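FORM 7B - TANDEM STRUCTURE REPORT

SECTION 1: FIRST PROTEIN
SEQUENCE AND TOKENS:
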Amino acid sequence: MGLHVEDLERKLEGGLAELRGSLSSLRGATLGNSSGGEPRWDELLDAMDLLEEASRVADAGLASGLMGVVARLERFLAHSGLTRLAPIGHVPDGRLFRIVGTQPHPSFAEGAIARVVRAAALRGDHRIREGEVIIVRNTP
């Protein structure tokens, strides 16, 4: 298991280096070009959503490694000025999240977020990606 996590970390480092290079070249190509804009973060954010979902169903050792990868990607996003929001257990902010379903969850209050399907993302106070959540509904 340890070798798999180390291999995953090496691949992650390589992927982050490649992403940094791509973002640098994208920023360089769009300097002075008014039609150029913010890089699209959807693929990275979607990958983070999938990693979190996989960690929910994985055994404890693998889940810990997957969440470590998510934490590293979160730091990369923060360094890039983005904040990813996935507030499980809290009432969703309608400005940031769209409710796409309900499910029972006896540990959480009615209306709280039970599962994040798609995390929201902010740059400062500006929403760059709407989140999608499943909220708690314990009564039939």
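SECTION 2: SECOND PROTEIN
SEQUENCE AND TOKENS:
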Amino acid sequence: MRIDGLASGLSACQPLLLGAALLLSSGCSGPATTPQARGDVHRGHLSLGPDSDAFLPCGASRPLQVVADPVLGERLSAEYLALVGEPYEEAFLQARGRRLASGGGVGERLQVEQILDLRAAGADDCH
């Protein structure tokens, strides 16, 4: 008798359990949100040209190679060229991004995730 009572009680709860399970699982299956930039802020001088690019962080002695996703890379190049008179001239860049270790014959790189400020280089940029 107790087993029958338990079985009928469970069958009455099944729609509630199923609804709760669907509600909980739907939170994980929704559209992914756009990830926010999580890197550190980097400041320094940027130099771009057809054959190479370099970002010299404030206070550093070695430049970093600049890498970015294609859309952001095109935007960075376009804004840079609009600022400077010729390729390889310095501009000041403040960007959110991550330093990537060197490897595979490539030196240390800066993965740019977000451009915070890009302007003509000045003498007091890094102060």
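SECTION 3: OBSERVATIONS ON SECOND PROTEIN
Residues 47 and 53 are 6 Å apart (CA to CA).
The first strand starts at residue 40 and ends at 48.

SECTION 4: SIGNATURE
Preparer initials: ____
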